[in-house]
Amino acid sequence: MFPDRIGHLHVSDNFGKEDQHLPIGVGIIDFSRVVKALKEKGYDDTITLEVFSRDRDYLKMSKKKMEEMFGTE
Q1: Global confidence as pTM
Q2: pLDDT tens across 9-44, in order?
């Protein structure tokens, strides 16, 4: 509704009940739909991946998935 007011995003996946900070693609959020809407509105600002895990591979996996969806890989 207000795409000009979005300046930064904090992104993680979850199962819809709590803020679980899961890697992108692990939970139920349809990120391809979210990214499509952001791209349609011309979003070109920053995104912070909030993936809480000791295993950095989960963060790398999330980054790669977001880059693929945004077409920036």
Answers
A1: 0.86
A2: 999 999 999 999 999 999 999 999 999 999 999 999
Return the pLDDT at 73: 65
| One-letter amino acid of 6 | I
CB 25 within 8 A of CB 63: no
| Residue entry with tokens 């790669």 | 64
Who wins on pLDDT, 3 or 13?
13
Distance of CA 27 to the CA centre of its chain: 12
> What tokens were used for 1?
């509704």
Instruction: Residue 60: name the closest of 27, 23, 29 by CA.
Output: 23
SS3 51: coil
Supply the DSSP string of 15-51, one letter for each residue. Answer: -SSS---BPTTTSS--HHHHHHHHHHTT--SEEEE--
Residue with tokens 């391809």: 32
